Amino acid sequence: MNMIAAYDITDEKRLTRVAKVMLDYGVRVQKSIFEITVTNTVFQELKRRVEAIIVTEEDGVKYFPLCEQCAGTVEIIGQGQFTDPDSEYYVY
């Protein structure tokens, strides 16, 4: 499944930790926005990892699912680059 993950984290340490988790699953397209392509099982793992870090009363994370057809119609104006969801990337 393709999705956009966006977050607003109030504490700098938690912000850094959430960003590192997101990098394990996707590509940063802006400071707190990631493009992610995962299976449902992997998505559940991602959510568990993020939920273990954030403080829900202070922080927010949103996941926006994108259908394959929608993901292929991304428009970029200005700075940015297209991220091919079918390309390979490695989790270290």
Report on this model:
The chain is α+β, with helices and mostly antiparallel strands and 92 residues long. It has 3 helices and 4 strands; from the N terminus they run E-H-E-E-H-E-H. A 4-stranded antiparallel beta sheet has the order 2-3-1-4. The protein has a single domain, classed as 2-Layer Sandwich (Alpha-Beta Plaits). The chain starts with a strand and ends in a 21-residue tail after the last helix. Strand 2 and strand 3 form a beta hairpin. The model has no long low-confidence stretch (mean pLDDT 85). 16% of the residues are buried.
> What is the count of helical runs?
3
CATH topology: Alpha-Beta Plaits
Return the CATH class.
Alpha Beta
Q: Cα distance, first to last residue?
A: 21 Å
Structural class: alpha+beta
Count every beta strand, where a strand is a DSSP E run of 2 or more residues: 4
